Amino acid sequence: MSDEALIVLDKVNKYFGPLHVLQDVDLSVARGEVVVVIGPSGSGKSTLCRAINRLEPINSGTITFDGRPLPAEGRSLARLRSEVGMVFQSFNLFAHKTILQNVMLGPLKVRKEKPAEVRERAMSLLDRVGIGNQAEKYPAQLSGGQQQRVAIARALAMQPKAMLFDEPTSALDPEMVGEVLDVMTSLAREGMTMVVVTHEMGFARHAANRVVFMADGQLVESAPPAEFFANPKSDRAKDFLSKIL
Ligand code: ADP
Ligand code: MG
């Protein structure tokens, strides 16, 4: 991890009508840093992730990515989206395309890269997430854990500078959670900058550089995992931890 910030949120505010879902949120994520975001349902974690790749516009404050303010539209927005990979709870793979086609689609269509190069990279990514031998299958033929690993490979195919994960294991059967967390852990060890919303406290303890606790739209605490779990400072964090640990 370097000292240089890749993602910087400065006094970010976001409203949905009267609902103030992000309240003066300040967050700086260094290159190579892994930040795990935890907090109760409805606290604004997904909105925070979506704001970072501008799936949600914000009402005030600034977000910069790699030294530039987030673009509002056009080609620079498309470039931002390719530089910030996102993995959701639902895998959103194209059902009528093979696993390999799913992974190749972004680089071919968005980035207009050469098919042979894209194919090679896609295959090596599928190997990396342990799905290389399933490349010609269709999503429905794979388990949920395998589909989520394909979704990770698909995001990586765009060669992102950062990866956002929004509860990537919440929709999985329990026995498949581990295989997805293993892929995320190795990605973290390889130095990928990651923002991960998850309820998997084991992952937070072992893979995160920092845990950020959100409640009611506010970023309440931010600390290394050992410190956060041993000594949460706010009552809200203590209360949250007492319910999930
Ligand atoms: P979390 O991911 O922490 O559960 P969210 O970011 O999804 O929280 O939501 C924060 C709050 O914003 C919640 O009260 C939610 O109901 C509300 N919200 C989220 N998306 C929308 C939307 N598109 N329109 C209106 N309200 C929304
Ligand atoms: Mg959410």
Compile the SSE list and pairings.
Elements: E1 5-16, E2 19-30, E3 34-38, H1 45-52, E4 60-65, E5 68-69, H2 74-83, E6 84-87, H3 99-109, H4 115-128, H5 144-156, E7 162-166, H6 174-189, E8 193-197, H7 201-207, E9 210-215, E10 218-223, H8 225-230, H9 235-244
Helix pairs in contact: 3-4, 3-5, 4-5, 5-6
Bound molecules: adenosine-5'-diphosphate and magnesium ion.
Residues 45-46, 166-167 line the site of magnesium ion (MG).
Written overview of the protein:
This protein is of the alpha/beta class and 245 residues long. It has one domain: P-loop containing nucleotide triphosphate hydrolases (Rossmann fold), CATH 3.40.50.300. It contains nine helices and ten strands. It has helices at 45-52, 74-83, 99-109, 115-128, 144-156, 174-189, 201-207, 225-230, 235-244; strands at residues 5-16, 19-30, 34-38, 60-65, 68-69, 84-87, 162-166, 193-197, 210-215, 218-223. It has a six-stranded mixed β-sheet with strand order 6-7-8-3-9-10, sandwiched between helices. The longest helix has 16 residues, at 174-189. It is globular, with a radius of gyration of 18 Å. The model has no long low-confidence stretch (mean pLDDT 95). The protein binds adenosine-5'-diphosphate (ADP) and magnesium ion (MG). Residues 16, 19, 21, 39, 41-47 line the site of adenosine-5'-diphosphate (ADP).
